[in-house]
Amino acid sequence: MFHPLPLYIGLRYTRAKRRNHFISFISMISMLGIMLGISALIVVLSVMNGFHKEIRDRILAMASHATLSDPYGGMADWKPVLERLRAHPDVVGAAPFVEVQAMLVGGSNVSGALVRGILPKEEDQVAELRRDMVEGSVDDLVDGEFRIILGRDLASFLGVGVGDKVTVVTPQVSATPVGIMPRLKRFTVSGLFAVGMADYDRNAAFIQMHDAAKLMTLGDKVSGIRLKLADLWEAPKLAREIAYDLGGVYRVVDWTQVHANFFRALAVEKRMMSIILFLIVAVAAFNIVSTLVMVVTDKQSDIAVLRTLGASPGRIMGIFMVQGTAIGFVGTLIGVIAGVLLALNLEPIIAGIEGLSGIHFLDPTIYYISELPSDVHLTDVAVIAASAFVMSVLATLYPAWRAANTQPAEALRYE
After folding, report:
1. Phi then psi for 312, rounded to 5 degrees?
2. Which of 95-109, 314-328, 351-365 holds the top average pLDDT?
3. CB 338, CB 34: distance < 8 Å
4. Comparing C-alpha atoms, which of 185, 136, 154, 391 is closest to residue 286?
5. CA 75 – CA 225 distance, rounded (Å)
6. Suppose 149 and one of 37, 191, 276, 343 were both cysteines; which one would form an S-S bond, judging by CB atoms 3.0 to 4.6 Å apart?
7. What DSSP element (H or E) covers 275?
8. pTM, full prediction
9. What is the 3-state secondary structure (H, E, C) of the chain?
10. Quick one: residue 109, left, alpha or beta (phi over 0 = left, psi -120 to 50 = alpha)?
11. Strand pairing of 91-106 and 66-69?
């Protein structure tokens, strides 16, 4: 294939104006198909990467990279442990918390929620709650004031707003003269937050940590310590190291375990979408087969002359492999360039189309993400380009083999 003769003749066949214009048309269609397929695959995967990144960032804005807790109950010695964790070189921030599954009552509406007790300034080290506040401030959570911050969707369901009262009912019970009663406390709504994830906006609430400890009768104990790590992708490894450093007496769970099913579902979705879209590239690549079969039929006499002049079957095969590979290479190159440029400029392109058409593809009143995020991964681009090119080369093998087996006498019989 890389001998000068096959290279020269194969590239000449590619550039030459063929007598059969239908063959030229099929060649162009094959090239355009590869180009469009690769462009579409790069753009779609970049958008999916952007969505995944956006979702991951929103989840990690509320969930910690890792959580340390006592498997047998509240942590009594959490202060020295907190100092040890903050001294760890891979720990960026650490904050204690108290957590409880509770029922929230607002008027006649009742909803379950995860209520987390936090220290506002400490929480800033591990989460972005302050950034996601839409009303009120995290600093309004003052010890003894019994204030609560609700997710915007949760507040809407309960029919309450800032300044209204909600009752928090916990699973703990208290013995009273009238019998066993659940522990409950009225809180004042001091703020609302919106992350853009229903799991949090509809099912989460925050109160001051000491108020939560009083509500749960924990005394000086906490439920655990939330950690922010220097590298979130190394969270599983660092979580094991931290658990080992602390003597293995605490349970350490990282974010990949807490949201394992969700991120696994996203990975499966991306993989299946890649396979579906790659079929477009496969169809276009294998159009090269039909193109080269027709070229071989059209060039029977040329092949016969070359064979009689001493060209080996391997060099004849190389000529048509060069021609098919050139079609695949050009289609792949243009497709990669077009796909990357589209993916990198997708947001202004979509904004321009929306401005001209007056149609919003992602209505901000329905979707939390009003723009199409795009995140181009060079590894995805490299795998797509390499796979498409390899498929193009493989598609040339049968037509080239057929050309190499042409018998000169049979081909020239009627010339």
Report:
1. -80, 160
2. 95-109
3. no
4. 391
5. 9
6. 191
7. helix 260-298
8. 0.70
9. CCCHHHHHHHHHHHHCCCCCHHHHHHHHHHHHHHHHHHHHHHHHHHHHHHHHHHHHHHHHHHCCCEEEECCCCCECCHHHHHHHHHCCCCEEEEEEEEEEEEEEEECCEEEEEEEEEECHHHHCCCCCCCCCEEECCHHHCCCCCCEEEEEHHHHHHHCCCCCCEEEEEEEEEEEECCEEEEEEEEEEEEEEECCCCHHHHCCEEEEEHHHHHHHHCCCCCECEEEEEECCHHHHHHHHHHHHHHCCCCCEEEEHHHHCHHHHHHHHHHHHHHHHHHHHHHHHHHHHHHHHHHHHHHHCHHHHHHHHHCCCCHHHHHHHHHHHHHHHHHHHHHHHHHHHHHHHHCHHHHHHHHHHHHCCCCCCCCCCCCCCCCCCCCHHHHHHHHHHHHHHHHHHCHHHHHHHHCCCHHHHHCCC
10. beta
11. unpaired
Cα separation, 166 vs 234, whole angstroms: 40
Residue type, 55: I
Residue with tokens 């695959």: 41
Please say whether the beta carbons of 183 and 215 come within 8 A. Answer: yes
Tokens 């019994």 belong to residue: 146
Query: How big is the chain by its Cα radius of gyration, in Å?
Result: 32
Using CA atoms, how far residue 322 sits from 248, 388, 398, in Å, is: 62, 16, 13
**Token pair in block for residue 286:** 């294998």
| Token pair for 56 | 């991951």
pLDDT higher than threshold 80 for residue 50:
yes
From CA 402, how far away is CA 200, in angstroms rounded? Answer: 63
Burial (0-12, 13-18, 19+ Cβ within 10 Å), 357:
exposed
Q: Residue 330 and residue 414: Cα distance in Å, rounded?
A: 36
Task: Using the structure block, give the residue that is written with the tokens 């952007």.
Answer: 50
Which pLDDT band, with edges at 50, 70 and 90, does 69 fall under? confident
CA–CA separation, 222 and 208 (whole Å): 12
Give me the residue spans of the domains in the chain. Answer: 4-57+263-412, 65-254
